[in-house]
Amino acid sequence: MTISTPPPTPAVPNAAPRTRRYATSGATMLMLSLLTVGLVAGVYFAFQVAVIPGLSRASDRTYAEAMNRINESIENPVFFAAFFGALAVTAIATVQQRRRGNRTAALFALLALALYVVGFGATIVGDIPLNEQLAAAGTAHAGPVIDRIRTPWLAWNAIRTVASVASLLCLGRALAVHRR
What we know:
It contains 5 helices and no strands. It is an all-alpha fold and 180 residues long. Helix 1 runs antiparallel to helix 5 (142-178) and helix 4 packs antiparallel against helix 5 (142-178). The mean pLDDT is 90. InterPro entries: Anthrone_oxy. The chain crosses the membrane at residues 27-47, 77-95, 107-125, 153-176.
């Protein structure tokens, strides 16, 4: 009695190498990136089109007090989870797509990460220092500070809003090409 073994499977030219399986799918991480970046982009957008224009119609004292309270209250675990989490999950999604051989999805995820970093950086180097200047002025002497920071604050916020929305669009494209 002879035992035959099946012939070896021939190598497929230009086939993507097999990758090991991960606990989460590439689509899951892309969707989580889309969610976190989208939440942060929404905050920036709301400031650009509603919060700052609304505060600009108030007295300087009210503007300063409200803006300072907003800046204090946004420093919370829920916002920080989205703000910092977007960096982490988008980086993980990018690496996953690359490891899985999804080059186009990886490229869009990497572009999304770079754009989010631009918005993140605008927050760190632009908006936060201006917020701190307003807080240091106090509400009684806020008028001159508000006049000095309003335009640059809106410019920095526009940068982070556009960068985050563009990041969101890139993540949507990454998810679309991932599924193909």
